[in-house]
Amino acid sequence: MLFAILFEDNPDADPNIRKSLMPDHLAFLENQKGQVHAAGPMKERDGTPAGGLWLVDAASAEAVDALVKSDPFWPTGLRKSYQVLAWTQVFKQES
């Protein structure tokens, strides 16, 4: 089953957390590439960080919760919250 995970950043979090843990976070995503099809940051129109988005293939929403909570970013307080939404792909542009 496909899921979209929307992350909301914690505006009160230390901005150095992202920078210091980015290599670990990217290694985590690389290790999960069988499940995580796409991942990346989102920004407000003015360029202010606004969170992130993952597209994930998982057996259940509970499996997605476990995946999110195993990300090195999760225990740091960088993420304020996340939302898991079931997603059905109806179009894919071929490259």
Mean pLDDT: 94
Order of neighbouring strands in the sheet with most strands: 2-3-1-4
- Mind telling me which CATH architecture this is? 2-Layer Sandwich
CATH superfamily: Dimeric alpha+beta barrel
Describe the structure.
The chain is an alpha+beta fold and 95 residues long. 26% of the residues lie in helices and 35% in strands.
Name some characteristics of this structure.
95 residues, alpha+beta, Alpha-Beta Plaits, 2 helices
In short:
By secondary structure, this protein is an alpha+beta fold.
Compile the SSE list and pairings.
Layout: E1 2-9, H1 16-31, E2 36-43, E3 49-57, H2 61-69, E4 79-86
Antiparallel strand pairs: 1-3, 1-4, 2-3
